[in-house]
Amino acid sequence: MNKIELVKDTIDNKDIDRLIEWLKTYPRLTKSTVTTEFEELFAKWMGCNYCVFVNSGSSANLIMLYVLVQKGLLNIGDKVVVPSLSWATDLSPVMQLGLEPVLCDVDLDNLSVDVNHLEKIFKEEGPKALILVSVLGLVPEMDKIVDLCNKYNVSLLEDVCESLGSKFNGKNLGNFGLMSTFSTYFGHHMSTIEGGLICTNEKDVYDLMLMLRSHGWDRDLCEDSTKKLRSKWGVSDFNGLYTFYVPGFNMRATDLQAYIGIGQIDKLDDTVISRNKNYKIYHELLGELSFFKQQKENCFVSNFAFPYVSDNRDLLVKELSSNGVEVRPLICGSMGKQPFYSKVYGELSLPNSEIIDNKALYLPNHPNLTHSDIKFVCDIIKRVDK
């Protein structure tokens, strides 16, 4: 029995051979010039000004939120909206930084925030920031969300870890807020073994991200920014390398990972096209059984995994698994049901999130998937959910 894997690593034998040849040159492996090259290439691909490479997508989320704290845009006790359908490390940094999370229900058309519930929260709760998660490559109602954030003076942050290459009106997701984050973990659109990226168009935000990534020092800043900072604080060049301006972390990735990443960017366009093609094949084969039908002309879906909702989920999971098809819950269900949230704030039930929590699952999508693989999966679904 052939196994149809849920995800597949984008690092292939050619990537490994290329890495081996590079290692034979005895390069520096810790963060150095290759990291900078990777960051510049990714920023160019994204269509933004700046990018910072860190050791995970979760670290990227933490730094992104902490930038707002350091800039005085968030203070202890302020409210931050997090989608109920998201990841643990979208929610946990809010709690870790002494902020108050407010969960927003899911839109069943695109798996992002329900804009009606979002506006209700904005009106009644007065949050200072929104962490907008684009789920599985599906595209949120970006125009409405941006308008709401502007109307209520809410800082927009984007988690695009599952949606690299998705577009709204021809513009890459990740270019609509003050900052955006991406994951380069195994199985994502591109992989650096472990890793994450943060993008922004603002120079002051970029400088702050660089310092927060590396202890709080100025070593990664451009010459002009370094001079201004040392002049402001009266720091000599002799002491400059060991002066810390913000309470930072050590969330650096390595040049080894960055070197892999540069090779991944070379095939990223093909990866995105392949994922979109598979997404359309699922829709075509499932027909009316396809719950999520986002194929609007102004939305390009770079699908991470295909979402499916079934009234017979337990039976469907059993049938798919017994036939070698890997599946999993849709992300991790509703965050309002997760123990680390409910033991602090109490369990929260939101109507649309309940549907996802009880009935939804991921189906495989990756560039190695064939048309016959997808047909095999869809035929099983049709037998169970006919």
Question: Main attributes?
Answer:
three-stranded antiparallel beta sheet; 2 domains; Aspartate Aminotransferase, domain 1; alpha/beta; 15 helices; globular; Aspartate Aminotransferase, domain 2; single chain; 386 residues; seven-stranded mixed beta sheet
Characterize this entry briefly:
The protein is an alpha/beta fold. The protein is 43% helix and 13% strand. Helix 12 packs across helix 15 (371-385).
User: On the 0-100 scale, what is the average pLDDT?
Assistant: 96
> At the third CATH level, what is the topology name of the largest domain?
Aspartate Aminotransferase, domain 2
Indicate the structural class: alpha/beta
CATH architecture of the largest domain: 3-Layer(aba) Sandwich
The stretches of 5 or more residues where confidence is low (pLDDT under 50) are: none
Q: Strand portion, in percent?
A: 5-15%
Give the terminus-to-terminus CA distance.
24 Å
The largest beta-sheet arranges its strands as 1-9-8-5-4-2-3
CATH class type of the largest domain? Alpha Beta
Helical content class? 40-55%
Number of helices: 15
Structural domain count: 2
CATH superfamily of the largest domain: Type I PLP-dependent aspartate aminotransferase-like (Major domain)
Radius of gyration of CA atoms, rounded to a whole number? 21 Å
Oligomer: single chain
What is the helix/strand order?
A: HHEHEHEHEHEEEEEHHHHHEEHEHHEH
Main β sheet profile? 7 strands, mixed
Broad shape: globular
Number of E strands: 13
